Every structure is written in structure tokens, then in C-alpha cells.
Model the fold of this input.
Amino acid sequence: MSRVAVVTGGNKGIGFAIAKGLCQKFDGVVYLTARDETRGLAAVEHLKKEGLKPKFHQLDVTDDSSVNTFKKYLSDTYGGLDVLVNNAAIAFKNDATDPFSIQASETVKVNYFSLVRVCEALFPLLKPHARVVNLSSSAGHLSRIPGAELKARFANPDLTQDELDQIMREFIEAAKTNSHQESGWANSAYSASKVAVSALSRIQQKQFDKDAREDLVVNAVHPGYVDTDMTSHKGTLTPQRGAQAPIYLALLPKNTDIKGKYIWHDNTIIDWVNDPLPTPY
Ligand SMILES: NC(=O)c1ccc[n+]([C@@H]2O[C@H](COP(=O)([O-])OP(=O)(O)OC[C@H]3O[C@@H](n4cnc5c(N)ncnc54)[C@H](OP(=O)(O)O)[C@@H]3O)[C@@H](O)[C@H]2O)c1
Done:
């Protein structure tokens, strides 16, 4: 049966470039997924005109029924999954007028809890040697957490997913009373969500290490500062360049040592707890 790769949020930006690169380099079927069918199909047509052969499936990461429909489709059609790139995310603009409490709950809902939803649904389908790539950010490095106590909770090597979920619920609660900074957070919902994605990747790798399936690998990646809608096209790297490290991680060879890590856009491994944040981003 065919090997299968899935990219979430594949209709534009870095996700589109990852889907394109995987069509060129991955030995199997590539699913470009999108929450909006029209935008997703248009992206697939675009790649087909370039001679590539992506497939499309609708996937809204915030929607249980959409995620479960896709899970069943993959299971029925292929019986498994080899590469999962969790790319879909949102970021409020700097000049957004939405109250911080709304920005916090929406951003953490999409970027963290919905990524968790996708993983919980699709991880049972992962085949031996599967590769999972979680799109974090330079904003997702632990040094982005100013509070020492909060930082220590994130850094705890024994942190569990339940505890991490709880930390993120606490962030949403603190944001409601605008007391998040007193609780040790920076004033950025996006950064909070991406620190959680990085922390989650470490926890997921520990779970994979205990899994009966051989050589399951997950890493978090900062793709660089990329020219996409998310950055209002201020990013300096092309989407193709931004896709470089995620594709590298999606295609890591069998029995790689690069697992449970936080990877910079030039493929270097950054110690998420102890290293300073590289510059420029
Ligand atoms: N650009 C950068 O400089 C940069 C830097 C660091 C990290 N990142 C990370 O890289 C990833 C891609 O960013 P980007 O710059 O390419 O962003 P983007 O251009 O805004 O694209 C985001 C993608 O996510 C999709 N998406 C949003 N909500 C979704 C949902 N509920 N279900 C499914 N898909 C959803 C969007 O779909 P719609 O078109 O339907 O909205 C779009 O396809 C993100 O995880 C981002 O945080 C980006």
C-alpha cells in the first residue's frame, strides 16, 4: 500500500510550499489539506499545473467531525500514515483590536488544542518509521517565557500532556483578567501557543519512545521569518525556503537521532531549555 503524507493548512504559505516539496521528494501520496474546500482545491490545481500530483482532503483542525472524517478516510483507504506535518495555525495581527482574552483563547484553541486534536486522532494510524513535524516558531522557544516559575514548569522533563493542557488553560484564564503577565507569561498569545507546541513535541517523543511501533519521530521546527499572509508579507524568506526545514524533518532517514528536538530553519538543533535564541530569526 502507498506511503502517505499529510500537511495541515496546505492551501497557502509555508504549508503549501511543504506540500509542494513533499510532492517532489516524498515516495508516496501527499495530502494537501485545507479547512476551506475551494481554497484547497485551487491550491491542488495550481500544483497539478506544475506537473505534481497532490491529493486533497478537507480538514479543519478545530472541528472534531472534520478531523474524524479524515481519520476514517485515511484508515479505510490506506490503513495508516507515514508523515504528518502540523502546519495550520493562526496569528492575530499586531494592530488587532480584539480583546487580549479573545486573542488568547482563539490562538491557543487553534494552535495548541487543535494540533493536539489532530495528533490524538491520527497518531494511532502512524506506521513504524513515521515522521511528525510540528510547526513551532522562534516565538515558541522557552526563553520567550519571562517568569522563572512558569519556565520551570515548561522545562520539567517529566511534564505530562495533561499538565501542559492545564498550563494552557491557566493562560486562557489569566488572560481573561489581564493577569497573564503577573503569572509569568509574555504579552503574546501566539508565543504562548507556540511554546506549548514545542513543549508538546518533547512529551510526544517520550510517548513514541515507549510505543511498540518502531522509530516514531516528532520534532518542533522554527521555519524562519517567512513572506506569507501571517507576517503580512514582511518575512524575509520565501515560503519555499521556509518549507526547507519542515521537509527535512518530514523525510528524516530511518532510525535518526534527531527526535523530540527544537530545530532552527537552517536545520540546526537548538537546546530548547538551555540555549539562547539564535538571531536573526
Ligand atoms: N510565516 C512565518 O514567518 C512563520 C514563522 C514562524 C512560524 N510560522 C508557522 O508556520 C506555519 C505556517 O505559517 P504561514 O506563515 O504559512 O501562515 P499563513 O500564510 O497564515 O497560513 C496558515 C495556514 O493555516 C490554515 N489554517 C488556519 N486555521 C485553520 C484551521 N482551523 N484548520 C485548517 N487550516 C487552518 C490557513 O487556512 P486558511 O487559508 O483557510 O486561513 C492557512 O492555510 C504556522 O504554524 C505558523 O505559526 C510561520
